[in-house]
Amino acid sequence: MSARKLAMTVFRGLQLGFVALVAADLCFDWGHPWWWNFLPLVLAHLLITVVNRWGGGAPDAPRAAREPVEVAPPVTGRWSALNSPADRTPSHGVHAYGQTYAIDVVAEPEPGARPGFSPLWPLVRRPADFPAFGAPLHAVADGTVVRADDRQRDHLSRTSLPGLLYLMLIEGSVREMSGVRRILGNHLVLDLGDGTHAAYAHLRRGSLAVRVGDTVRAGQVLARCGNSGNSSEPHLHFQLMDGPDPDTARGVPFTWRGIGVPRNGETFDVPQPAPAAPAPDSLPEPSDFPFRPA
């Protein structure tokens, strides 16, 4: 286990320790000063500070400037960009999990096809209400599958104000403490060679058409878009990074061939892949059996 991986494991353990102390204090009234409950959080902060110092800066930040790596788009059809690195970096506000240059995309087959944000009602929507759910996702280049996970359930949307607050204040914190798998949800990582890896996150449960060790070709259908992990609605979270483990990898800038990097709110169209690539309908549908516990 690398020093960075060990630090992240201890960091999450300290966060869980804080929750355990608060719960124990409320249940048993130990009588110690309330601020003692925050000791694990202080230790967690000190740990990350030390790792930052030894690492010569933010441990997740890219080590050196790199030219964007050109790859094919991972989707076909009409989509819109959110949280784009064309507008700011880190695109999601943090360098963690190798997402400095990550981008989110949502399907927009036509204006109004995607349900919008609702202040109060409906509180949640089914994943199938969004056009991105079930959309085929393609290999952006030739590569090898080095990580694959599709056992987590697709949850309801968080596209109302109460739902979004729940995601940010409660669910997101729990997922953060539970590790990178719970953040990304169902996901896969491709090794593209030359120290570059492509990550696809929030995939549909049971939709992976590849497994670890498989060699894939550019344009090949890999999985379907879902709403698993730390996600507010069905969408694809895509990023390039310099290692296979998002816990320790650093972000790598990308550009999509023929498109570039779309800005926030920008709509873009991607034609269907060449006939040689597997057709989207060749991908088996996920099992209709009830979800297994995540």
Automatic annotation (TrEMBL):
Residue spans of biased composition, Pro residues class: 272-283
Domain of life: Bacteria
Region (Disordered): 263-294
Domain M23ase beta-sheet core: 171-242
Gene3D superfamilies in UniProt: Glucose Permease (Domain IIA)
UniProt xrefs under InterPro entries: Cell_wall_metabolism_enzyme, Dup_hybrid_motif, M23ase_b-sheet_dom
Protein name per Swiss-Prot or TrEMBL: M23 family metallopeptidase
One Pfam assignment: Peptidase_M23
Coiled-coil spans in chain: none
